[in-house]
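Q: My labmate handed me this sequence with no annotations at all. I'd like to see what the chain might look like in three dimensions before we decide whether it's worth expressing. Could you predict it?
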Amino acid sequence: MAKILTDQNFTDDVQAKFGTGGDMQILHDGSDGFINCDTGDLHISRPSGDNIKFITGSSFETLKLDGFGGVTTYSVLTTGGNIIVGGGTVQLNGTGRITGVDTVSANTDAANKSYVDLAVGSYVPLAGGTMTGVLSIPSLITHAGNTTTSFGFNANNQYDVIIAGQAKLRVNSTKIETFNSEITTSGNPQYFTYGGSGSQQLVFRENGPGGYKNSIIANAGGGIKLYYNNDIKLETVSGGITLGNNSLRLGQYSAIDLNGVGPSAGKVITGTGTSTQLVWNDSVANINVGAGLDVSSSTSNGATTKSIFLDFTELADTDGEDPGVTAFVVLDNEDENAKISLTDMSNVDTHFKRTQTILTSNFDDRSSSTSTFYMPLNYISETTSANYYNTFTCPTNGRIKRIRMMHTAGSTMSTFFTTELSILKNGAISSSSGELTPSNGSNDGSAIVWNPGSIVAAQFNTGDRLNFRYQKSGTGKYWYGVSVSIVVEFDNIF
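A: Here is what I predict for the chain of 494 residues:
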Protein backbone atom coordinates (compact mmCIF):
# COMPACT_ATOMS: atom_id res chain seq x y z
CA MET A 1 0.00 0.00 0.00
CA ALA A 2 1.38 3.39 -1.01
CA LYS A 3 1.25 6.22 1.57
CA ILE A 4 0.98 9.75 0.17
CA LEU A 5 2.22 12.38 2.57
CA THR A 6 2.24 15.42 0.29
CA ASP A 7 -0.21 17.20 -2.02
CA GLN A 8 -0.88 15.53 -5.34
CA ASN A 9 -1.68 17.68 -8.36
CA PHE A 10 -3.90 16.46 -11.20
CA THR A 11 -4.39 18.34 -14.44
CA ASP A 12 -7.85 18.97 -15.92
CA ASP A 13 -9.81 15.89 -16.89
CA VAL A 14 -7.33 13.61 -15.02
CA GLN A 15 -9.16 11.36 -12.60
CA ALA A 16 -8.11 10.16 -9.20
CA LYS A 17 -9.52 6.65 -9.13
CA PHE A 18 -10.35 4.59 -6.06
CA GLY A 19 -11.36 0.96 -5.67
CA THR A 20 -10.65 -2.07 -7.73
CA GLY A 21 -11.53 -1.28 -11.31
CA GLY A 22 -11.86 2.46 -10.53
CA ASP A 23 -15.27 2.28 -8.78
CA MET A 24 -15.10 5.95 -7.70
CA GLN A 25 -13.44 8.91 -9.43
CA ILE A 26 -12.69 12.52 -8.48
CA LEU A 27 -11.84 14.99 -11.24
CA HIS A 28 -12.07 18.58 -12.45
CA ASP A 29 -12.74 19.35 -16.10
CA GLY A 30 -11.51 22.90 -15.95
CA SER A 31 -15.00 24.28 -15.21
CA ASP A 32 -16.66 22.02 -12.63
CA GLY A 33 -15.62 19.45 -10.08
CA PHE A 34 -17.08 15.96 -9.93
CA ILE A 35 -17.26 13.06 -7.46
CA ASN A 36 -18.51 9.97 -9.24
CA CYS A 37 -19.36 6.78 -7.35
CA ASP A 38 -20.09 4.13 -9.95
CA THR A 39 -20.57 1.25 -7.51
CA GLY A 40 -22.78 1.37 -4.36
CA ASP A 41 -23.83 4.41 -2.31
CA LEU A 42 -21.76 7.51 -1.68
CA HIS A 43 -21.43 8.01 2.10
CA ILE A 44 -20.38 11.34 3.61
CA SER A 45 -20.33 11.03 7.38
CA ARG A 46 -19.21 12.79 10.55
CA PRO A 47 -19.22 11.63 14.15
CA SER A 48 -22.55 12.07 15.96
CA GLY A 49 -23.22 15.66 16.97
CA ASP A 50 -20.99 17.19 14.29
CA ASN A 51 -22.33 18.83 11.14
CA ILE A 52 -21.80 18.41 7.45
CA LYS A 53 -21.88 21.82 5.74
CA PHE A 54 -21.96 22.84 2.09
CA ILE A 55 -20.33 26.23 1.75
CA THR A 56 -20.08 28.54 -1.27
CA GLY A 57 -17.78 31.51 -1.48
CA SER A 58 -15.61 32.09 1.51
CA SER A 59 -18.09 31.22 4.27
CA PHE A 60 -21.73 31.23 2.93
CA GLU A 61 -23.50 28.01 3.92
CA THR A 62 -26.05 26.73 1.42
CA LEU A 63 -26.91 23.41 3.09
CA LYS A 64 -26.23 22.05 6.56
CA LEU A 65 -26.85 18.49 7.73
CA ASP A 66 -26.56 18.45 11.49
CA GLY A 67 -25.66 15.45 13.59
CA PHE A 68 -29.25 14.96 14.82
CA GLY A 69 -30.90 14.45 11.40
CA GLY A 70 -31.90 18.09 10.82
CA VAL A 71 -31.53 19.76 7.42
CA THR A 72 -31.11 23.50 7.00
CA THR A 73 -31.09 25.23 3.59
CA TYR A 74 -30.03 28.82 3.13
CA SER A 75 -30.97 29.46 -0.48
CA VAL A 76 -32.90 27.48 -3.09
CA LEU A 77 -33.51 23.72 -2.86
CA THR A 78 -34.31 22.28 -6.31
CA THR A 79 -35.10 18.64 -7.06
CA GLY A 80 -36.51 16.71 -9.99
CA GLY A 81 -38.17 14.16 -7.71
CA ASN A 82 -40.08 14.21 -4.43
CA ILE A 83 -39.11 15.87 -1.18
CA ILE A 84 -40.42 13.66 1.64
CA VAL A 85 -40.68 15.13 5.14
CA GLY A 86 -41.36 12.39 7.66
CA GLY A 87 -42.93 13.81 10.81
CA GLY A 88 -41.39 17.25 10.32
CA THR A 89 -42.36 20.49 8.64
CA VAL A 90 -41.36 22.53 5.63
CA GLN A 91 -40.84 26.05 6.97
CA LEU A 92 -40.69 29.15 4.77
CA ASN A 93 -39.16 32.25 6.31
CA GLY A 94 -39.33 35.80 5.07
CA THR A 95 -40.13 35.85 1.38
CA GLY A 96 -39.53 32.14 0.79
CA ARG A 97 -42.03 30.10 -1.19
CA ILE A 98 -42.66 26.71 -2.77
CA THR A 99 -42.89 27.25 -6.53
CA GLY A 100 -44.99 25.40 -9.05
CA VAL A 101 -45.13 25.97 -12.77
CA ASP A 102 -43.94 29.54 -12.59
CA THR A 103 -43.04 32.17 -10.04
CA VAL A 104 -45.16 34.99 -8.69
CA SER A 105 -44.87 38.25 -10.57
CA ALA A 106 -43.33 41.00 -8.51
CA ASN A 107 -45.82 43.00 -6.45
CA THR A 108 -46.19 44.17 -2.89
CA ASP A 109 -47.67 40.88 -1.60
CA ALA A 110 -45.29 38.63 -3.51
CA ALA A 111 -42.27 40.63 -2.46
CA ASN A 112 -43.05 40.58 1.27
CA LYS A 113 -45.03 37.39 2.04
CA SER A 114 -44.60 33.62 1.82
CA TYR A 115 -46.61 31.84 -0.91
CA VAL A 116 -47.39 28.55 -2.62
CA ASP A 117 -47.30 29.27 -6.36
CA LEU A 118 -50.09 27.49 -8.32
CA ALA A 119 -49.51 28.50 -11.94
CA VAL A 120 -48.44 31.46 -13.98
CA GLY A 121 -49.61 34.57 -12.07
CA SER A 122 -51.48 32.50 -9.41
CA TYR A 123 -50.55 32.03 -5.77
CA VAL A 124 -52.00 31.34 -2.33
CA PRO A 125 -50.73 33.47 0.56
CA LEU A 126 -49.60 31.41 3.56
CA ALA A 127 -49.63 34.30 6.03
CA GLY A 128 -51.75 37.31 5.05
CA GLY A 129 -51.83 38.84 1.62
CA THR A 130 -54.27 38.37 -1.26
CA MET A 131 -54.85 35.31 -3.42
CA THR A 132 -54.76 35.70 -7.18
CA GLY A 133 -55.65 33.35 -10.01
CA VAL A 134 -57.87 30.25 -9.78
CA LEU A 135 -57.97 27.78 -6.88
CA SER A 136 -59.22 24.38 -8.13
CA ILE A 137 -60.80 22.13 -5.45
CA PRO A 138 -61.67 18.53 -6.44
CA SER A 139 -64.49 18.12 -3.87
CA LEU A 140 -66.35 19.76 -0.95
CA ILE A 141 -64.49 21.69 1.73
CA THR A 142 -65.13 20.14 5.15
CA HIS A 143 -63.98 21.20 8.61
CA ALA A 144 -61.78 18.59 10.25
CA GLY A 145 -63.78 18.77 13.49
CA ASN A 146 -67.23 18.56 11.84
CA THR A 147 -67.29 16.35 8.76
CA THR A 148 -71.10 16.67 8.31
CA THR A 149 -70.88 20.39 7.51
CA SER A 150 -69.27 21.44 4.22
CA PHE A 151 -69.55 23.61 1.11
CA GLY A 152 -68.38 23.53 -2.47
CA PHE A 153 -69.26 22.28 -5.93
CA ASN A 154 -70.70 18.82 -6.43
CA ALA A 155 -70.44 16.55 -9.48
CA ASN A 156 -73.56 18.10 -11.11
CA ASN A 157 -72.04 21.58 -11.49
CA GLN A 158 -73.98 22.81 -8.47
CA TYR A 159 -72.78 24.75 -5.46
CA ASP A 160 -74.04 23.22 -2.18
CA VAL A 161 -74.03 24.34 1.43
CA ILE A 162 -74.44 21.23 3.59
CA ILE A 163 -75.36 21.41 7.29
CA ALA A 164 -75.48 18.26 9.46
CA GLY A 165 -75.25 16.07 6.36
CA GLN A 166 -78.26 17.70 4.63
CA ALA A 167 -78.10 20.15 1.70
CA LYS A 168 -79.67 23.44 2.85
CA LEU A 169 -78.72 25.73 -0.05
CA ARG A 170 -78.05 24.85 -3.69
CA VAL A 171 -77.10 27.15 -6.55
CA ASN A 172 -77.06 26.12 -10.21
CA SER A 173 -77.20 27.86 -13.56
CA THR A 174 -80.97 28.60 -13.36
CA LYS A 175 -82.04 28.90 -9.72
CA ILE A 176 -81.23 29.06 -6.03
CA GLU A 177 -82.92 26.38 -3.92
CA THR A 178 -83.38 25.96 -0.16
CA PHE A 179 -84.28 22.65 1.49
CA ASN A 180 -86.29 22.51 4.75
CA SER A 181 -84.89 25.93 5.65
CA GLU A 182 -86.14 29.44 6.33
CA ILE A 183 -84.83 32.62 4.72
CA THR A 184 -84.83 35.35 7.36
CA THR A 185 -83.66 38.94 7.56
CA SER A 186 -82.52 40.98 10.54
CA GLY A 187 -82.42 44.64 11.44
CA ASN A 188 -85.11 47.31 11.30
CA PRO A 189 -86.62 47.79 8.78
CA GLN A 190 -86.35 44.42 7.05
CA TYR A 191 -86.57 44.00 3.28
CA PHE A 192 -86.88 41.22 0.75
CA THR A 193 -85.82 42.83 -2.53
CA TYR A 194 -85.21 41.77 -6.09
CA GLY A 195 -83.85 43.84 -8.95
CA GLY A 196 -83.00 43.95 -12.59
CA SER A 197 -84.29 45.67 -15.69
CA GLY A 198 -87.32 44.88 -17.81
CA SER A 199 -90.43 42.98 -16.74
CA GLN A 200 -89.20 41.50 -13.43
CA GLN A 201 -91.46 39.28 -11.29
CA LEU A 202 -91.30 37.86 -7.79
CA VAL A 203 -93.15 34.52 -7.86
CA PHE A 204 -94.20 32.26 -4.99
CA ARG A 205 -95.33 28.88 -6.26
CA GLU A 206 -95.53 25.22 -5.29
CA ASN A 207 -93.73 22.53 -7.27
CA GLY A 208 -95.90 19.50 -6.53
CA PRO A 209 -96.82 16.24 -8.27
CA GLY A 210 -99.04 18.11 -10.73
CA GLY A 211 -96.34 20.62 -11.66
CA TYR A 212 -95.98 24.26 -10.66
CA LYS A 213 -98.94 26.03 -9.04
CA ASN A 214 -98.73 29.79 -8.48
CA SER A 215 -99.62 31.33 -5.13
CA ILE A 216 -98.44 34.97 -5.43
CA ILE A 217 -96.96 36.89 -8.38
CA ALA A 218 -95.64 40.41 -7.78
CA ASN A 219 -94.71 42.42 -10.89
CA ALA A 220 -91.95 45.03 -10.62
CA GLY A 221 -93.66 48.41 -10.29
CA GLY A 222 -96.99 46.79 -11.16
CA GLY A 223 -99.74 44.69 -9.63
CA ILE A 224 -99.91 41.69 -7.35
CA LYS A 225 -101.91 38.56 -8.20
CA LEU A 226 -103.26 36.13 -5.59
CA TYR A 227 -104.04 32.59 -6.71
CA TYR A 228 -106.07 29.65 -5.42
CA ASN A 229 -105.49 26.27 -7.08
CA ASN A 230 -103.54 28.09 -9.82
CA ASP A 231 -106.52 30.39 -10.66
CA ILE A 232 -106.33 34.18 -10.14
CA LYS A 233 -108.74 35.23 -7.39
CA LEU A 234 -107.60 38.84 -6.74
CA GLU A 235 -105.40 41.30 -8.61
CA THR A 236 -104.29 44.85 -7.88
CA VAL A 237 -104.48 47.18 -10.88
CA SER A 238 -103.87 50.89 -11.44
CA GLY A 239 -107.48 51.74 -10.55
CA GLY A 240 -107.80 49.53 -7.45
CA ILE A 241 -108.56 45.85 -6.97
CA THR A 242 -110.24 43.48 -9.42
CA LEU A 243 -111.84 40.11 -8.59
CA GLY A 244 -112.37 39.05 -12.19
CA ASN A 245 -115.20 36.51 -12.30
CA ASN A 246 -114.81 35.68 -8.59
CA SER A 247 -117.17 36.56 -5.75
CA LEU A 248 -116.48 38.71 -2.70
CA ARG A 249 -117.80 36.76 0.27
CA LEU A 250 -118.55 38.46 3.59
CA GLY A 251 -119.43 36.88 6.92
CA GLN A 252 -122.81 37.30 8.61
CA TYR A 253 -121.76 40.45 10.49
CA SER A 254 -119.32 41.83 7.88
CA ALA A 255 -119.74 45.05 5.96
CA ILE A 256 -118.01 47.10 3.26
CA ASP A 257 -116.73 50.45 4.57
CA LEU A 258 -115.17 52.86 2.05
CA ASN A 259 -113.35 55.83 3.67
CA GLY A 260 -115.65 55.67 6.67
CA VAL A 261 -118.78 55.72 4.50
CA GLY A 262 -120.73 52.53 5.03
CA PRO A 263 -124.14 51.06 5.86
CA SER A 264 -124.19 52.84 9.24
CA ALA A 265 -124.30 56.17 7.39
CA GLY A 266 -127.31 55.14 5.36
CA LYS A 267 -125.42 54.20 2.21
CA VAL A 268 -126.44 51.36 -0.08
CA ILE A 269 -124.60 49.43 -2.81
CA THR A 270 -126.26 49.62 -6.21
CA GLY A 271 -125.44 48.96 -9.85
CA THR A 272 -124.61 51.82 -12.21
CA GLY A 273 -127.08 50.60 -14.81
CA THR A 274 -124.50 50.79 -17.60
CA SER A 275 -121.68 48.55 -16.34
CA THR A 276 -120.93 45.74 -13.94
CA GLN A 277 -119.52 48.13 -11.33
CA LEU A 278 -121.17 48.87 -7.97
CA VAL A 279 -121.51 52.37 -6.48
CA TRP A 280 -122.57 53.85 -3.13
CA ASN A 281 -125.78 55.92 -3.20
CA ASP A 282 -127.51 58.05 -0.57
CA SER A 283 -131.09 57.59 -1.73
CA VAL A 284 -133.36 54.62 -2.37
CA ALA A 285 -134.45 56.39 -5.51
CA ASN A 286 -131.40 54.86 -7.18
CA ILE A 287 -132.79 51.34 -6.63
CA ASN A 288 -135.07 50.12 -9.38
CA VAL A 289 -137.49 47.32 -8.50
CA GLY A 290 -140.13 45.45 -10.43
CA ALA A 291 -143.45 43.87 -9.52
CA GLY A 292 -143.37 42.03 -6.21
CA LEU A 293 -140.74 44.23 -4.49
CA ASP A 294 -141.24 47.40 -2.44
CA VAL A 295 -138.58 49.77 -1.09
CA SER A 296 -138.93 51.88 2.05
CA SER A 297 -136.71 54.22 4.06
CA SER A 298 -136.64 55.14 7.75
CA THR A 299 -134.36 57.37 9.84
CA SER A 300 -133.32 56.80 13.46
CA ASN A 301 -130.63 58.72 15.37
CA GLY A 302 -129.42 60.30 12.16
CA ALA A 303 -128.89 56.99 10.34
CA THR A 304 -131.05 56.05 7.37
CA THR A 305 -132.14 52.44 6.94
CA LYS A 306 -133.20 51.15 3.52
CA SER A 307 -135.41 48.08 3.32
CA ILE A 308 -136.62 45.93 0.44
CA PHE A 309 -139.83 43.96 0.97
CA LEU A 310 -141.56 41.14 -0.90
CA ASP A 311 -145.03 42.35 -1.87
CA PHE A 312 -147.26 39.30 -2.24
CA THR A 313 -150.10 41.39 -3.63
CA GLU A 314 -147.97 42.22 -6.67
CA LEU A 315 -146.54 38.76 -7.30
CA ALA A 316 -149.55 37.89 -9.41
CA ASP A 317 -148.35 40.51 -11.90
CA THR A 318 -145.08 38.62 -12.47
CA ASP A 319 -145.31 36.42 -15.53
CA GLY A 320 -143.35 33.27 -16.20
CA GLU A 321 -141.18 34.80 -18.89
CA ASP A 322 -137.59 35.96 -18.42
CA PRO A 323 -136.79 37.53 -16.04
CA GLY A 324 -139.36 35.59 -13.97
CA VAL A 325 -139.29 34.56 -10.30
CA THR A 326 -136.83 31.68 -9.80
CA ALA A 327 -136.60 31.45 -6.02
CA PHE A 328 -137.84 32.78 -2.67
CA VAL A 329 -135.77 33.78 0.37
CA VAL A 330 -137.01 32.92 3.86
CA LEU A 331 -135.75 34.86 6.91
CA ASP A 332 -135.94 33.72 10.54
CA ASN A 333 -136.05 35.86 13.69
CA GLU A 334 -132.20 35.77 13.93
CA ASP A 335 -131.78 37.36 10.47
CA GLU A 336 -130.53 34.07 9.06
CA ASN A 337 -131.84 33.33 5.58
CA ALA A 338 -132.03 30.62 2.97
CA LYS A 339 -133.01 30.49 -0.69
CA ILE A 340 -135.84 28.16 -1.71
CA SER A 341 -136.27 27.27 -5.37
CA LEU A 342 -139.70 27.14 -6.98
CA THR A 343 -139.52 23.34 -7.14
CA ASP A 344 -139.02 23.20 -3.36
CA MET A 345 -141.86 25.59 -2.62
CA SER A 346 -144.29 22.67 -2.79
CA ASN A 347 -142.56 21.16 0.26
CA VAL A 348 -142.87 24.45 2.13
CA ASP A 349 -146.50 24.67 1.07
CA THR A 350 -147.12 21.10 2.28
CA HIS A 351 -145.50 21.84 5.65
CA PHE A 352 -147.77 24.77 6.36
CA LYS A 353 -150.86 22.87 5.13
CA ARG A 354 -150.65 20.13 7.79
CA THR A 355 -151.49 20.14 11.49
CA GLN A 356 -150.69 17.49 14.10
CA THR A 357 -152.71 16.63 17.22
CA ILE A 358 -152.69 13.90 19.89
CA LEU A 359 -155.35 11.39 20.90
CA THR A 360 -155.01 9.75 24.33
CA SER A 361 -156.26 6.46 25.76
CA ASN A 362 -155.98 5.40 29.43
CA PHE A 363 -157.04 2.02 30.84
CA ASP A 364 -156.08 -0.81 33.23
CA ASP A 365 -155.00 -3.94 31.31
CA ARG A 366 -155.86 -6.93 33.57
CA SER A 367 -157.12 -9.46 31.00
CA SER A 368 -155.23 -12.80 30.91
CA SER A 369 -155.87 -13.34 27.21
CA THR A 370 -154.24 -13.28 23.79
CA SER A 371 -157.36 -11.74 22.23
CA THR A 372 -157.24 -8.42 20.36
CA PHE A 373 -158.42 -5.52 22.53
CA TYR A 374 -159.72 -2.12 21.41
CA MET A 375 -158.20 0.91 23.14
CA PRO A 376 -160.94 3.11 24.66
CA LEU A 377 -161.33 6.79 23.74
CA ASN A 378 -163.11 8.93 26.39
CA TYR A 379 -163.59 5.73 28.40
CA ILE A 380 -161.49 3.70 30.87
CA SER A 381 -162.07 0.05 29.92
CA GLU A 382 -160.76 -1.92 26.96
CA THR A 383 -163.06 -4.34 25.10
CA THR A 384 -162.73 -7.01 22.42
CA SER A 385 -165.21 -5.40 20.02
CA ALA A 386 -165.68 -2.07 18.26
CA ASN A 387 -167.97 0.40 20.00
CA TYR A 388 -168.73 4.11 19.89
CA TYR A 389 -166.35 4.86 22.82
CA ASN A 390 -163.36 3.32 21.06
CA THR A 391 -163.96 4.64 17.54
CA PHE A 392 -162.47 7.83 16.04
CA THR A 393 -164.16 9.48 13.06
CA CYS A 394 -161.84 11.43 10.74
CA PRO A 395 -162.88 15.07 10.12
CA THR A 396 -160.50 15.49 7.12
CA ASN A 397 -157.78 13.66 5.26
CA GLY A 398 -154.63 12.72 7.15
CA ARG A 399 -152.43 9.94 8.53
CA ILE A 400 -151.42 8.24 11.77
CA LYS A 401 -147.81 9.28 12.55
CA ARG A 402 -147.05 7.47 15.84
CA ILE A 403 -148.57 5.28 18.58
CA ARG A 404 -146.84 5.02 21.96
CA MET A 405 -148.18 2.58 24.62
CA MET A 406 -146.62 2.90 28.12
CA HIS A 407 -147.07 1.33 31.58
CA THR A 408 -147.36 4.35 33.88
CA ALA A 409 -148.92 3.25 37.18
CA GLY A 410 -150.68 0.49 39.15
CA SER A 411 -149.42 -3.02 39.79
CA THR A 412 -146.06 -4.18 38.46
CA MET A 413 -146.44 -5.18 34.82
CA SER A 414 -145.42 -8.58 33.48
CA THR A 415 -142.18 -9.44 31.69
CA PHE A 416 -141.11 -11.80 28.88
CA PHE A 417 -143.94 -11.05 26.46
CA THR A 418 -144.54 -8.99 23.32
CA THR A 419 -147.43 -6.86 22.06
CA GLU A 420 -148.66 -6.13 18.53
CA LEU A 421 -150.41 -2.84 17.66
CA SER A 422 -152.85 -2.48 14.74
CA ILE A 423 -155.20 0.03 13.09
CA LEU A 424 -158.72 -0.95 12.04
CA LYS A 425 -160.14 1.30 9.32
CA ASN A 426 -163.86 1.09 8.51
CA GLY A 427 -164.02 -2.36 10.14
CA ALA A 428 -160.98 -3.85 8.30
CA ILE A 429 -157.35 -4.14 9.39
CA SER A 430 -155.33 -1.53 7.51
CA SER A 431 -151.88 -2.01 9.09
CA SER A 432 -150.11 -3.62 12.06
CA SER A 433 -146.78 -3.14 13.84
CA GLY A 434 -145.59 -6.70 14.28
CA GLU A 435 -144.41 -7.97 17.69
CA LEU A 436 -142.96 -5.23 19.92
CA THR A 437 -141.04 -5.77 23.19
CA PRO A 438 -141.49 -3.34 26.13
CA SER A 439 -138.44 -1.11 26.50
CA ASN A 440 -137.84 -1.30 30.26
CA GLY A 441 -139.10 -4.61 31.56
CA SER A 442 -141.65 -4.30 34.38
CA ASN A 443 -140.64 -0.78 35.44
CA ASP A 444 -142.84 2.31 35.18
CA GLY A 445 -142.17 3.96 31.83
CA SER A 446 -141.65 0.67 30.01
CA ALA A 447 -143.17 1.25 26.55
CA ILE A 448 -143.56 0.17 22.94
CA VAL A 449 -143.53 2.63 19.98
CA TRP A 450 -144.80 2.25 16.43
CA ASN A 451 -144.32 4.86 13.65
CA PRO A 452 -146.72 3.96 10.81
CA GLY A 453 -146.57 7.43 9.16
CA SER A 454 -144.71 6.19 6.08
CA ILE A 455 -147.25 3.37 5.47
CA VAL A 456 -149.91 4.18 2.90
CA ALA A 457 -152.36 1.98 4.82
CA ALA A 458 -151.98 4.30 7.83
CA GLN A 459 -153.48 7.17 5.83
CA PHE A 460 -157.16 8.04 6.02
CA ASN A 461 -159.77 10.18 4.30
CA THR A 462 -162.57 12.38 5.53
CA GLY A 463 -165.31 10.25 7.20
CA ASP A 464 -163.16 7.12 7.80
CA ARG A 465 -163.71 5.33 11.12
CA LEU A 466 -160.54 4.27 12.99
CA ASN A 467 -160.03 1.84 15.88
CA PHE A 468 -156.68 1.38 17.67
CA ARG A 469 -155.99 -2.12 19.01
CA TYR A 470 -153.39 -4.25 20.82
CA GLN A 471 -152.78 -8.01 21.26
CA LYS A 472 -150.43 -9.69 23.81
CA SER A 473 -148.32 -12.73 22.92
CA GLY A 474 -149.33 -14.92 25.87
CA THR A 475 -151.86 -15.46 28.65
CA GLY A 476 -151.12 -14.38 32.22
CA LYS A 477 -149.35 -11.24 30.94
CA TYR A 478 -150.51 -7.81 32.12
CA TRP A 479 -149.73 -4.19 31.30
CA TYR A 480 -151.89 -2.90 34.19
CA GLY A 481 -152.06 0.96 34.28
CA VAL A 482 -151.59 2.07 30.65
CA SER A 483 -151.34 5.49 28.92
CA VAL A 484 -151.45 5.58 25.11
CA SER A 485 -150.54 8.65 22.97
CA ILE A 486 -151.57 8.65 19.29
CA VAL A 487 -150.11 11.36 17.02
CA VAL A 488 -152.52 12.22 14.19
CA GLU A 489 -151.62 14.55 11.29
CA PHE A 490 -154.46 16.33 9.41
CA ASP A 491 -154.42 18.26 6.16
CA ASN A 492 -155.45 21.84 6.91
CA ILE A 493 -158.92 22.91 5.96
CA PHE A 494 -159.05 26.20 4.01
